[in-house]
Amino acid sequence: MSDVTSDYRTLVKSRHYIDLPGEPPKSKLWPGVNNLIILRKHRDVVFDIKLGNGATYTVTTDRPQSEYGRFYDPKRNLNVTKVTFKDGEPCHLWLGRTFQGSLILKQGDKLLGRYPIRKMDYTQGCTEDPKDKPAPIIIAMGLAQKAEQATTVSSSRTPQSPEKILFPRPTVPGLTDDSLIFDQSLMQEQLACRLPIKLAQDLTVAPPQEAHIVEVDARSIPEELLDAVAAGGSDETAIDNNKIATRNWLFGQLGGALGFFSDNKEWIREIWSEKFRLMKIVHKNAGERWYVVLTGNPRLRKYLTAARYGAKNEKVLTIAGGAGTLESGAAAAWEASKGAFKKAGLLALIFTVALDTAEWLHDYQQIGPDGKPKKDFADLLGKIGIDLAKAGLSAALASIAVGAVIAFLGTTTLPVWGIVVGTIAIAVGIGYGLDLIDKKTEATGHFTSGIRWLGKSLKDSAEYLEKAMPNDYQGYSLMYMP
Predict the structure, then answer these.
(1) Which of 72, 199, 46, 201 is nearest to 135 (CA)?
(2) Where are its TM segments located (predicted)?
(3) What are the tens digits of pLDDT across the range 48-59?
(4) Collapsed DSSP state (helix, strand, coil) of residue 20
(5) How far apart are CA 24 and CA 35, in angstroms?
(6) Dihedral, 402, 405, 411, 412 alpha carbons, nearest 10
(7) What is Dmax (Cα atoms) for the chain?
(8) 348 contacts: CB under 8 Å, gap ≥ 6
(9) Alpha-carbon dihedral 432, 433, 439, 445, rounded to 10 degrees
């Protein structure tokens, strides 16, 4: 056998890249040269389904016939278009950089989800460097009730518990310690290639990833202000028997009213002292149409320059709540929902989130019997998430209610100031009702449990990736809360 170092073929190197184990290179292997078969780093996708039903799931692709629609199953060491796994069992897939289409998750014939991988990757892929690692994707589903039990059990076990070894490291025959390069004998066997295939010595392992964790420091907020805001959310400050209308709640409603005035100040200023009414006109060709007719001289206005507008006109949707037809009412509700997250409505929402955060920080400082803070980050996310949902829903319901009242009054002439005041009153009433429902059903608690479960599930999957590929995912699990 000749010495490789003195072989003239080592002077000429031809690199050929593949995206998944077992793939043949798409470029031509040249005889008489050093052909280097280089495996580029893949994307890891982990399905973690824990619905507690003992079901079996399948993952397929919507492009099984395409060479770019396949993925690698590290358990079977095969490039496939379909895998099956059981509930509670993590499913780990390798996707090449050139993967196209979507992964489809099913339980029997029931479609659970369709995941367009490239659209889900907000990092916009990776560079052409074979050592660059595409961002992993973790897809988790489960029941919040199960999460609380699982969290309790896992916290009482030692690090050597079975939960820590549920995810065996996948082994791929033929891979060296450098996960980019295939063993020569395996590639010769799989590609039926008689040419000498050697390892690329000039490629190094990518540096480990780092996760930076920033701890919340309550000292950055004045203690007096924090105590005042935290006390404002307590039941003792409520003015109602249901303990909903606390001081902070009233401040939040005031912020919402000011946001409504700010976003609609143009038409409020112009027609505050005027009146309007609904009018139905049956057109010969267009059919029945509803209009909002305004009193006063339109020539003196800058915003509402016409005497009447269609019920779906964006300038009057807020005034009449789209009264007249279901279509215009739906349009008004949609615009109101979007308006809760724009301009002054967004500022009012930020103010509400600030109140939530201040209350949470106060509880975060309180240490429970277990030596941990009484509230964790999941509690903050749960509170903010429910408040965001209630903001959009409250705006939409308020618009529907205003439209319904105006439609009920029919063609009665109504003062604009009454509509403005009535809209705010209806919005406050609906907000109170949603908060009461939330308190009775403990929706925030259930949502927070779901977030806590999701965080634990993502952390488990991240720990699996960290153990399976420590060079690529060192410290990756620290980015997820338990």
Answers:
(1) 46
(2) 391-410, 416-434
(3) 998 888 899 999
(4) coil
(5) 13
(6) -100
(7) 103
(8) 252, 255, 256, 258, 259
(9) -100
Kindly report the pTM of this predicted structure: 0.63
- Alpha-carbon distance of 200 to 187, in angstroms, equals 14
Question: Are the beta carbons of 45 and 97 closer than 8 angstroms?
Answer: no
Spell out the domain ranges in the chain: 4-206, 223-441
**Radius of gyration of the chain from its Cα atoms, rounded to whole angstroms:** 31
Structure tokens at 11: 């002077």
Among residues 249, 300, 309, 237, the alpha carbon closest in space to that of 270 is found at 300
Among 85-89, 208-212, 221-225, 400-404, the minimum mean pLDDT is found in 208-212
Which residue matches tokens 């507008």? 309
Closest by CA to 325, choosing from 307, 310, 340, is: 310
pLDDT per position as a tens digit, 229-263: 777 888 888 999 999 999 989 999 999 899 888 98
Contacts of 202 by beta carbon, 8 Å cutoff, 6+ apart: none
DSSP letter string over 124-190?
A: ----S-TTPPPPPEEEEEE-HHHHHHHHHHHHTS-TTSGGGGSSPPP--TTB-SSTTBB-HHHHHHH
Which token pair is 249? Answer: 């709640």
Rounded Cα gap, residues 313 and 306, in angstroms = 12
Going by DSSP bridges, is the β-strand pair 110-116/91-95 parallel, antiparallel, or unpaired? unpaired
Least confident residue range of 94-98, 289-293, 407-411, 450-454: 407-411
Task: Output the pLDDT for position 73.
Answer: 94
pLDDT at 91: 94
Query: Looking at this protein, which amino acid is placed at residue 412?
Result: T
What's the burial of 47, exposed, middle or buried (CB within 10 Å: 0-12/13-18/19+)? Answer: buried
% of the chain exceeding 70 in pLDDT: 79
The Cα 294–Cα 301 span in angstroms is: 11
Q: Is 378 exposed, middle or buried (0-12, 13-18, 19+ CB in 10 A)?
A: buried
